[in-house]
């Protein structure tokens, strides 16, 4: 067998895999992964605002539902609702209230 054919096969395979990964990356950057067309949901009422790792298993998650924010601790032996009374405020109103 000719080693040139093997080399051509592997280079073509690497090129095709690279095209697939670049198309997936481009689709993710353009927002196609959370499109209402794909998810079927046009009116999003729930949104994950922030995620912080506590340790290898546990995470703190800030979730916004309608006009309320909920702070959750997930992972470990059980999931906990830390705070559910956090109302959504704009950053401008918070900075105005803190300045005396």
UniProtKB/TrEMBL annotation:
InterPro entries: FliO/MopB. Keywords: Membrane, Transmembrane, Transmembrane helix. The chain crosses the membrane at residues 6-27. PANTHER family: FLAGELLAR PROTEIN FLIO. This is FliO/MopB family protein. It comes from Kiloniella antarctica.
């Amino acid at each position: 067998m000719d080693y040139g054919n093997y080399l051509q096969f592997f280079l073509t395979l690497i090129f095709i895999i690279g095209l697939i990964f670049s198309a997936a990356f481009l689709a993710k950057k353009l927002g196609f992964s959370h499109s209402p067309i794909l998810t079927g949901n046009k009116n999003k009422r729930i949104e994950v605002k922030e995620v912080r790792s506590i340790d290898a298993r546990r995470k703190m998650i800030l979730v916004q539902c309608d006009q309320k924010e909920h702070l959750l601790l997930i992972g470990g032996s059980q999931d906990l609702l830390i705070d559910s009374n956090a109302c959504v405020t704009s950053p401008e109103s918070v900075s105005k209230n803190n300045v005396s």
